[in-house]
Amino acid sequence: MKATVRVPATVANLGPGFDLVALALQLQNEVHAQGTGDGVVAVVVDGGGADAELLDPLRNLVARAYVQACTQLGVPDDERGVTLRCVNAIPMSRGLGSSAAAALSGVLVAVALQRASWQESDILGCVSGFEGHSDNAAAALLGGLAICAPGAAPQRCDVPDELHAVLFAPQRRLATHEARQVVATSFSRADALFNAGRCALLVRALLLKDYSALREAMDDRWHQAQRASLFPAMGALIDAAYAAGADGACLAGAGPSILALTARDPAPLTAALSAAAARLSVEGSVLVLRPRNFGSRVEVRP
Fold it and tell me: Is the peptide bond before 16 cis (omega within 30 degrees of 0)?
């Protein structure tokens, strides 16, 4: 049995929506899986840097998630054999949901090869065991804008196709666990109300295409200021994006990438972010992507 899984990049938080909202983008990783009929899990990697961690089935997140899903499905060890060829296009440890894409890919491969009847909640529950939160995984699975309210099933809505997501992705990586360590575990009532209100404004602005409201809607008091200590260029890059006409801008996920949204020509933003990064001596590249209003895709073949 063979399966191909295609899982998109995602950007979480979008400013105020810490661990609550995420947006799927038109950039994807692929995993081509072939069952081998034995108990050996093997990994081959194309792209993303085929270092030792990615090639080791005990450390590769796609393989680990596959094994965990097989365990939850009750698949015997000697029937889990698979070769996983991972084609990586999503930059790793840049705030673009690479770890969620990897974990989700592994789970979806297991479900596909075992022809399991897992629901969305089962899939996300398994992935969340690796991620600790479900916003990126929900957006990657469902597409569009995913809203993950604690205690409720994730919901999604379409995002205008006319939007451009302009991302400056620094060359340096930033591990999510490192970025989470600097974020407070509790907030004042004023800051909680501030961000809750901004989340509501953000969803409204995207649904109604009120792009003029995005700048205010993407303001944040929960995590960006704290994470600036890990990436000091963040504020200057966001300012450069706004000066070039961005409708909204923020840290992408846990960072260190910067996201700018616009419904206009993205070229001025691309130039401005590149120039600002050069001025700040921050090496990196600019990606221009569209929202992806469909989620992961799975193809199964004999």
Answer: no
CA dihedral 143, 149, 242, 165 (to 10 degrees): -10
pTM for the full model? 0.94
Dihedral sign for Cα atoms in the order 166, 136, 184, 195: positive
Binding residues for ATP: 91-101
Which residues are annotated binding-site positions? 91-101
Pairing of strands 82-87, 41-46: parallel
Please list the pLDDT of the chain residue by residue as tens digits (302 residues).
999 999 999 999 999 999 999 999 999 999 999 999 888 999 999 865 556 677 888 889 999 999 999 999 999 999 999 999 999 999 999 999 999 999 999 999 999 999 999 999 999 999 998 877 899 999 999 999 999 999 999 999 999 999 999 999 999 988 888 888 899 889 999 999 999 999 999 999 999 999 999 999 999 999 999 999 999 999 999 999 999 999 999 999 999 999 999 999 999 999 999 999 999 999 999 999 999 999 999 999 98
Q: Please report the domains of the chain, with CATH numbers, ordered by start residue.
A: 2-157+292-301 (3.30.230.10), 164-289 (3.30.70.890)
Residue 238 neighbours by CB distance under 10 Å: 25
